[in-house]
Amino acid sequence: MWKPENNWWKPLDPIEKRWVTIAFIWCLFLTAMMPIWLVMGKQNVPAKTYKILPADYMKVVDKFVEQYTVGTDETTGIPIVEPPPGGNAFILARQFRWYPILKLKEGETYKIHISSIDVQHGFSLQPTNLNLQVLPGYGYVAEIVPTQKGDFTIVCNEFCGLAHHLMVGKIIVE
Amino acid sequence: MNEKNAAVTWEGIEAKEFDYRVCPATGLLVDTKAEKLVIANAVAAVICLTLGGIFALLISLTRWQTIHLLDATWYYRLTTAHGVDMLVAWIVFFEIAALYFGSTALLNARMVSPKTAWLAFVLMVIGGGLANFAILTGKADVMFTAYVPLKASPIFYVGVILFAVGALIGVGLFFVNVFVAKAEGRYTGSLPLVVYGLVAAAIIAVYTLLSGALAFVPALFWSLGLLKQYDPAFYRNLFWSFGHPAQQINLCAMVVVWYMLSHITTGGKTPNEKLSRFAFILYVLFINLGSAHHLLVDPGPSFPWKVFNTSYAMYLAVLASMIHAYSIPAGVEIAQRKKGFTKGLFGWLKNAPWKEPGFASLAVSIVIFGWIGGVTGVTIGTEQINMLAHNTLRVPGHFHATVVGGTTLAFMGLTYYLIPLVFRKELRMKKLATLQVYSFGAGMTLVSIGMIIAGLQGVSRRHFDITFANAAIQGGIPQGVHIGLALLGIGAIIAILAGTLFVTIVLVSILNPKKVSPTSVTLVIPQESVNVPETKKEPSAKGTFVLVLIFLMFFATYYLSNWWLLGRTWFIR
To answer: Nearest-CA residue of chain A relative to B27?
Structure first.
């Protein structure tokens, strides 16, 4: 019932050969798409990352907030910070909030640093739908150009504790 | 049928060193000690499936925003338990049962060390029990992934480690059984394809379970306070070398089950053993690279590292799946054509045994696994596209199609044939069994598609409330999200009902006191015969070729439209 034929080492028939060839070419195309998009595409996973201790990251963020604060969010008391176009901006993740609120200009480039000071979080910009993993001890430098105006929320999409679903941040684009 | 130490020969092989019976349906020798172990592991598997299924219903009715059943704490807690019981316990118990079955009955061989196998079983039961205890008592609200530095009680890590060690022992025994069977000359020539595939699954299992131990042992020490720091990036890499390939053991085992079911229900055989075996080798060599799918938007790894790994070198594991996706239906087509179903391109398919639960589960499992699971998996596992999908509901949408609609459904289908083969009981309510397969498939299709629809609109996975009702900062969500989540909830209800039906049919069949007699076992209802045309030419699988080409076009459309979607979002690099 289950035994193979005695001599099963035989060549592929024409249909098999055709299918394996087509499938392999498709696989090569799938592989090629990623380097092609790296060169031609405008959306690539940020390659610049660095290691940083949570305490150090906190200091940098505090300095950044002090320098560029333009207001305070009424309901949460979280500062609204407007970094200079082309410059560095910082987002800090902690249980259970994103800090601070960024105010950006449409069409300008910003180097947005993202890191966590406690557990892992997920940076999920909505409704644009851009998602990055955030780890404590590691910083991301994402060069971002907002292409739409409006209020955008940062949802935490990596489970970070029992109040995970309350962790929502904001980016304002004018 | 027990005969102790009787010197009976079977195809020239002497079988006197172990207690055995002769299987009435297949004529295979069955080691009664191995049989008990197969039964124990299969029963444990179904118990885990039942538990995980109850949790599944509760958490999906919570995600269905209109019902929103549980509170946040229990939602997270049961999501953790659901992951552990389904992705690890149910699947691995069933695989161990399959490995023992494959390395003894299918080779006319014996279980070399039943005592060790029982030790493995006990370790797995204790491990699974401890992990569940820790989770359900609130000592491990960390999700199935338990990402460091989110800390669980040491009991949780001990449970997972014990389970992995037990499973590793079981896998080791599988290899020992196969080697001893060969040394004792219990089978001649090459391994049957089915066992060959199981060997591939077992090799993958070894490096998977070792990675699991490597990830969890330091986590245990860290949880005990003996280790101060545990790098989260390092843990993620190790964890996914366990978490992702663990599902590739399933994949491999599922493909094996597909070959079995196609053979049992239609007499189909792979048209080319060499090609099918080559595809299994591709799995062994490349599929574990897929662990990188989870690290595509992590800080740390470089672009070349991500691309090489996420593409399984050059999508060579995908190539393997595409080979099986052709070989299995082609085997069915050729067998059907030989029976006289030669009309047109698809006459063989139209006249396939659709009312046979085994064939139904084969067909539905292949479609859900390939068309939904495979296509979405390759797409969201593309480095840049992953930015649209990472940690959204598209991810569970993908793996519920592969692991549940694919693997679980195939395992359910096989179980219906293991009842007469292993339990020696008649399968009761066979018509309901067929209905069970179709309704489970329909339910899981809705679950997966519902999740994908919501995920495409950015809805996060593992999230209690995506309307952010109690959050300090409010964000609107697209209305279409609710349609996706409702589909998920409705699909889950259908799938759970079908799952309940599965457990019921199995219980009613095996609790029936009457054992089947050696002559009365009919595994498959015979098909109506047709006039077989007299031809010496081997029929070719042209219908299957057309089917796989249509599949490829669908694949390409979905894949390319995701690049288009990515091109519309903010610029980032």
So the answer is: A1
- Are B318 and A27 inside 8 Å of each other by CB? yes
- Own/partner contacts of A23-28, CB < 8 Å, gap of 24 or more, are A23/B319, A23/B322, A23/B323, A23/B552, A24/B319, A26/B315, A26/B322, A26/B552, A26/B555, A26/B556, A27/B314, A27/B315, A27/B316, A27/B318, A27/B319, A28/B314, A28/B315
Average pLDDT, chain B: 91
- Round to whole Å and give the CA distance between B24 and B31: 14
B388 in contact with A at a CB cutoff of 8 Å?
yes
Contact (Cβ atoms closer than 8 angstroms) between residue B461 and residue B393 = yes
Contact B569 A130 (CB under 8 A): yes
Residue type, position B465, single letter: D
| Lookup: tokens for B493 | 């209800």
SS3 B572: strand
Q: Would an 8 Å CB–CB cutoff place A142 in contact with chain B?
A: yes
Domains detected in chain A: 48-173 (2.60.40.420)
Which two structure tokens, joined as six digits, stand for B283? Answer: 């799995």
C-alpha B189/C-alpha A29 separation (Å) is 39
Q: How far is B283 from B314, CA to CA, in rounded Å?
A: 12
- Give ipTM to 2 decimals: 0.96
State residue B534's pLDDT score: 66
- Confidence at residue B1, expressed as pLDDT on a 0 to 100 scale: 38
DSSP A136: B
CA distance B208 to B244: 8
Cα B82 from chain centroid (whole Å): 15
Which residue type does B554 have? F
Taking contacts as CB-CB distances below 8 angstroms, the residues of chain B near A130 are 387-388, 569-570, 572
Give chain A positions within 8 Å (CB) of B481: none
> CB–CB of B382 and A1 under 8 A?
no
Are B150 and A165 in contact (CB < 8 Å)?
no
Q: Is A95 on the interface with B (CB under 8 A)?
A: no
Q: How far apart are the first and last CA of chain A?
A: 71
Task: With H, G, I as helix, E, B as strand and everything else as coil, classify residue B475.
Answer: coil
Is residue B428 within 8 A of residue B509, CB to CB? The reply is yes
Chain B positions in Cβ-Cβ contact with residue A155 (cut-off 8 Å)? 458, 460, 463, 466, 468, 475
Instruction: Residue B28: list chain A partners with CB under 8 A.
Output: 1
User: pLDDT tens digits, residue range B118-129?
Assistant: 999 999 999 999
In the structure, what pLDDT confidence band is assigned to residue B304 with cuts at 50, 70 and 90? very high
**Which residues, 6+ apart, have CB-to-CB distance to B501 below 8 Å?**
B432, B435, B436, B439
Q: Are B385 and B423 in contact (CB under 8 A)?
A: no
